[in-house]
Design a protein that fits this description.
Layout (H helix, E strand, L loop, with lengths): L1 H5 L5 E11 L4 E7 L8 E2 L2 E4 L6 H13 L7 E6 L10 E11 L12 E6 L5 E2 L3 H16 L15 H12 L5 H10 L3 E8 L7 E6 L1 H6 L16
Parallel strand pairs: 1-6, 3-8
Antiparallel strand pairs: 1-2, 1-4, 2-7, 5-6, 9-10
Length: 235
């Protein structure tokens, strides 16, 4: 039996994380230069290699912390990319992860060996290997999930206004929503708790603040957010 294992081709396992962030206006992607990009204008996803004594989740968390200082953020495993020519240096299979964070909630602590920067999804630089394909796949998965689950709220502060939610979902789906219809439908979802507080400094009256009712979401994770355009195409 040992001979059977010894005859198999060995390959590296990489962990690549797609870190989406929202800065209140647009959706962004956290990219890094980690020393394997030969061209100066080429960037890559947060990535590194699996160690023999690690699980996939442990490796993804370690790599992200080593590159950016980000810790204790939710990472969701997305997919695996294994084209034999995806890495020209060595046969490598990539297991990808996705994270959603509010940019203002986190301070990046970048190792001196690396560079890291937020890029607008509309102005991404050239990406390493097949990372552009990985990002497109992650965006599709984000839109599909955001149509039926309130995952987008991970990108918002704990307290937010209806206009802030609308700006976020317009950024996720790269679409404009009718203000009245959006407000009516998001409130009808039953996911929000209206607070007595108002957001100040943007208008004389101020907009009421809301928070996500996590107890309702935990009981029913299959909400259909009907304000999402062309939701049938995402099924």
């Amino acid at each position: 039996m040992l001979d059977l294992y010894l005859k198999q081709t060995k390959c590296l396992v990489a962990l690549d994380s797609i870190i989406f962030g929202f800065d209140g206006e647009e959706l962004k992607l956290l990219l890094v230069k980690r020393g394997i990009e030969q061209e100066k204008d080429v960037w890559s996803l947060m990535g590194g290699w699996l160690k023999p004594d690690e699980s996939l989740n442990e490796a993804a968390e370690r790599i992200l912390f080593e590159l950016t200082g980000l810790n204790n953020i939710y990472l969701e495993q997305l997919s695996t990319f294994g084209d034999p020519k995806r890495d020209p240096v060595e046969r490598t299979v990539s297991v990808t992860y996705k994270a959603l964070i509010n940019v203002s909630d986190y301070d990046l602590n970048i190792s001196e060996k690396y560079q890291a920067r937020w890029f607008s999804l509309k102005k991404l630089p050239e990406l390493l290997f097949d990372h552009e394909q990985i990002v497109r796949h992650a965006i599709d998965r984000l839109r599909s999930k955001a149509a039926f689950h309130p995952v987008g709220f991970e990108l918002l502060p704990e307290k937010f206004t209806i206009p802030q939610i609308q700006t976020l979902y317009e950024a996720i789906f790269d679409s404009k929503f009718d203000k009245r219809n959006f407000s009516r439908k998001i409130l009808a979802s039953g996911l929000l708790v209206k607070l007595e507080e108002k957001q100040r400094g943007f208008s004389k009256k101020g907009a009421f603040l809301y928070t996500l009712d996590k107890s309702k979401y935990e009981k029913n994770t299959s909400y259909n957010l009907y304000f999402v355009p062309n939701v049938e195409s995402l099924i």
